[in-house]
Structure formats: structure tokens, C-alpha cells
Design goal:
It contains 17 helices and no strands. It has 395 residues and is mainly alpha-helical. The protein is globular. It starts with a helix and ends in an 11-residue tail after the last helix.
Length: 395
């Protein structure tokens, strides 16, 4: 008897969560190990700062371009082939990147690796449901949380490892976790007996939460050091790096912990989502006040503020992501729903930091107000619209 025949959907889902989360960690690590190596790569590749920063932001463009196609692919073929595609793309791309001696080759490798993001993350709603995962909030929180934990670890240790060691460590970690995931995806993920249902997916109000949280998180990370330098902080570089890493760490904790908590508060999960949105709004205001000098950094508490912003913001993001999936009419459509959520999130990442971010330095108080109003819009959507029903994606 085959493995598929012996294992029920729930058992398959339980087995998939471990490698799915582990691979998400290696993906985040492999991407943000590059962040502290920016000066090194400028010198090694002979490229300007903007070109190196483009390498880091490529995953956002890949998510914008590939989220809905990846969601549709999963809805038609099942999660197994998409996960294998993500593993192969990441390994090939990161290997080319580690071998690259010129910027053009490095860029090519980074583009290939970036294409894995939409196949792994965007259709998470369908991947979990089609694989038989019953605790979908916990599963969503685990995968998103480990992705952010990998980003935090990469950002923290990349500078200590050096370029060659850091880039090759990313390849090795990816090979180990990717091999584990691909083996299980190929051999145990059901394909032909999927109840896909109707695939028509409308824009869900919770997509606004994805847009708001993702865009403001990236904007804070992008402007933190520059804003503190503008305020003549004597330790701007150190504090800026610390609060960015703490935001990533808080994001990991918030996604994983509140995904689990939301599962156990299913009847009250919408209230929990609203409370987290309100908390994120408060910490957004305080964080922006620190970066604009409305609250002097000498007062203390900036590290704790950004940690709590990461926890509340990404917990809110994760529950809203799962809520948009539960509104879908079928398991296949759930992948398209979360793909649309990812698309909205990364459109925000591509637009808001560029348009609004520079105001943190040139017009501090208007930036504080605009940022707070943006997050308040997401909170209003959470309060004045209803989420999806848990039965919608049972098929």
C-alpha cells in the first residue's frame, strides 16, 4: 500500500507543517543574510547602493507579479508541485548567487530565488487545507512566524559570517530543509482527489490589513536609522539595527503565538483580531513619535516599542490572512484568497515606503500623522467588516 493510501489527510498535514515551517525559515534567512552585507557587496560587486538594495527588495516584486498565478497553479495542481517548484527555484537561485563574481550573475540568481516566494507563501490558504491541516490558524502562524524568524536570524548573524560564509550557509540550510519538504510534498501530498470547488475570488476587506501592516513594517525598517541620524542620535546605527531586528523577532513571535492562540479562541478570534489591530495602532504611533523626535529617544523604551509593534502587527496580519482564506468558497479558492492578500501586501511594500518614507526626515510630524491614519484605516476595516466563516473552506 502506498504512503498516500496509508496516511489520512490530517496525518499528512501534521507531517507537512514541520518541513513547511523549516523551509520558510531558510527562505527568510537566505534573503536577509544579505542585509548586513550591503557595504561588502558594494565593494565586491562594484555596484552602487541602490543596485544592492534592489537585490533585497526583489522578493516583493516577485510577490506582486507571481502571487495570483501561484495561487491559481496550486488551486489546479494541488500544493505538492508548487512546493517542489519553490524548493528548486530557491536552491538554484541561491547557488548561482553564492558563485557569482559579478553583479549581473548575482542579480540573475536573486531573481530566480525570489520567484520561490509566491509559490511557497502566497497560496498558503490552499496549501494548508489541501494537505489536510485542520489547525489552519496555527499552521499559518507557524509558517509566517518561521519566515520572519529566519529574516531576523539572517539580519543578526550575516555581518558576523562574512559574504562567502553567509551566502553558502544559506544554500546548505536550504538544501537540507528543501529536501525534507520536497520529499514529503512529492510522496505524501494528495493531488488528484482534491475538492477544489469554485475558484471565483472577490477582493476581501482584510486585504487592506495586509497592505497596511506590510507597507508600514518595511517603511519603519527602511527609515529607522536615517531618521535617528537626522535627530542626531549618537548611536543611530546601532539603535536602528537593533530596532529593525527586534521588529522581525517580534513579528515571528506574534505570528506563531497568536496563530496558536487564535485557534483556541475560534469563536472569539474576530475580537482578538480587532484587539491586535488596536494595539498595533498604538505602537505604530509611539514608534513614529520616537523616529520624529516627538518622544525623545533618551526617554527609553524604543527597543520595547518596536518589539511590541512587531508582535502585535504581525499577529494581526496573520489572523487577517487566515480570515481572508476562511471567506473563500473552497479549498482551491482559499489559495487564491491568500494569494490576493499577499499581492495587496506587496503592492503596499512597493509603493508606501517610497512615497511616504522620505517624509519621516523632511516632514516628521505630517509623516507621523499620515502613518497613524494609514494604520487606523486597517483597524477600521477590521471593526466595520466581518470575516469569513470557518465552514467556507472545509471542502
Amino acid at each position: 500500500m502506498s504512503t498516500n493510501a496509508a496516511a489520512g489527510p490530517t496525518e499528512i498535514g501534521a507531517r507537512l507543517l514541520g518541513p513547511y515551517g523549516a523551509f520558510a525559515f531558510t527562505l527568510g534567512f537566505g534573503w536577509f543574510v544579505l542585509a548586513p552585507l550591503v557595504p561588502t557587496e558594494i565593494a565586491r560587486l562594484g555596484a552602487p547602493l541602490w543596485a544592492i538594495l534592489l537585490l533585497i527588495s526583489l522578493y516583493g516584486y516577485a510577490m506582486v507579479a507571481g502571487s495570483l498565478p501561484a495561487g491559481y497553479y496550486v488551486s489546479r495542481r494541488g500544493p505538492g508541485p508548487a512546493l517542489v517548484v519553490a524548493v528548486v527555484l530557491t536552491f538554484v537561485g541561491l547557488t548561482i548567487r553564492a558563485l557569482a563574481a559579478s553583479y549581473d550573475v548575482f542579480l540573475a540568481g536573486q531573481i530566480i530565488a525570489a520567484l520561490a516566494y509566491p509559490f511557497l507563501i502566497a497560496p498558503i490558504g490552499a496549501v494548508l487545507r489541501m494537505s489536510g491541516v485542520r489547525a489552519t490558524k496555527t499552521g499559518t502562524g507557524l509558517v509566517i512566524g518561521t519566515l520572519f524568524l529566519g529574516m531576523a536570524c539572517g539580519a543578526l548573524v550575516g555581518g558576523h559570517l562574512g559574504a562567502s560564509t553567509g551566502l553558502w550557509l544559506a544554500v546548505v540550510l536550504n538544501l537540507l530543509a528543501g529536501g525534507w519538504l520536497a520529499r514529503l510534498a512529492v510522496r505524501q501530498t494528495p493531488r488528484h482527489d482534491l475538492a477544489l470547488g469554485r475558484l471565483n475570488v472577490a477582493v476581501h476587506p482584510r486585504w487592506v490589513v495586509g497592505f497596511v501592516v506590510a507597507s508600514t513594517s518595511v517603511m519603519f525598517g527602511s527609515v529607522a536609522t536615517a531618521a535617528l541620524v537626522h535627530l542626531h542620535s549618537p548611536v543611530a546605527t546601532i539603535v536602528g539595527g537593533n530596532i529593525t531586528a527586534l521588529t522581525f523577532l517580534g513579528s515571528a513571535v506574534g505570528a506563531a503565538a497568536f496563530g496558536w492562540i487564535g485557534e483556541r479562541m475560534l469563536d472569539a478570534s474576530e475580537g482578538l483580531e480587532r484587539a491586535l489591530g488596536a494595539a498595533a495602532l498604538v505602537f505604530t504611533f509611539i514608534a513614529a513619535a520616537f523616529l520624529t523626535g516627538v518622544i525623545p529617544s533618551a526617554v527609553g523604551g524604543i527597543d520595547l516599542t518596536f518589539l511590541l509593534l512587531g508582535i502585535s502587527g504581525n499577529a494581526w496580519y496573520t489572523l487577517a490572512l487566515e480570515d481572508s482564506a476562511r471567506a473563500a468558497v473552497s479549498a482551491g479558492a482559499a489559495g487564491l484568497a491568500t494569494a490576493g492578500y499577499s499581492l495587496a501586501s506587496n503592492v503596499g511594500v512597493a509603493v508606501v515606503p517610497v512615497l511616504l518614507g522620505p517624509l519621516a526626515i523632511s516632514a516628521g510630524r505630517p509623516w507621523l500623522v499620515a502613518t497613524t491614519v494609514l494604520v487606523a484605516l486597517g483597524v477600521a476595516v477590521t471593526f466595520f467588516t466581518r470575516g469569513g466563516s470557518s465552514e467556507a473552506t472545509a471542502a
